[in-house]
Amino acid sequence: MLNLRGLDLRILRELVASPRVGVTELAQRLGIARNTASGRIARLERHGILRGQGRDVDCTRLGIEVTAFVTMRITQGQQHAAIADLAAIPFVLEAFTITGDTDLLVRIAARNTKHLHEVISTVLACRGVFRSTTSVAMTEPIPFRLVPLIDFLNEKNLLND
To answer: Rounded CA gap, 58 and 12, in Å?
Structure first.
């Protein structure tokens, strides 16, 4: 595990809060040299802490009105095949292996409920999937966020400095 320092957390916070910020502007905001910012970003990427350069996208503006969470039970020994099949479905946004009564938790996007039914049918046809439960998200009162966590870790000095 990478030993994160206060500067690393400050860089992460800025990148999460302003994903479009350039390295030069980031360095100016933090009062550090551009090469320092660039080097720290490269280090965070190398260690897998920073992944991709995603932007916050409002899926409803793309015509995606429904978000659903599907828990799945997978036939023993078929998890890799099921995950490979799920990864081929563009409306599967993410998947997690989980503990408990089910094996996978999958976030699915769909244009509407009719389309959700079609996507779920495709999901159920994946190798190894033998049972699923679908929950449709009604609202998103707390969207995915990282800034509060980064701030907490930095303020409480919970990471090695």
So the answer is: 22
Which class would CATH give 59-136?
alpha beta
Domain extent listing, the chain: 6-55, 59-136
**What are 2's two structure tokens?**
């990478």
Looking at domain 6-55, its CATH class is: mainly alpha
Backbone φ and ψ for 74, nearest 5 degrees, come out as -115, 140
**Which tokens belong to 139?**
């609202």
Could you read off the pLDDT of 63-100 as tens digits, one per residue? 999 999 999 999 999 999 999 999 999 999 999 999 99
SS3 content of the chain, % helix, strand, coil (to 5): 40, 20, 40
pTM of the model: 0.79
7-38 burial, b at 16+ Cβ within 10 Å, e below that, comes to ebbbbbbbbeeeeeeeeeebbeebebeeeebe
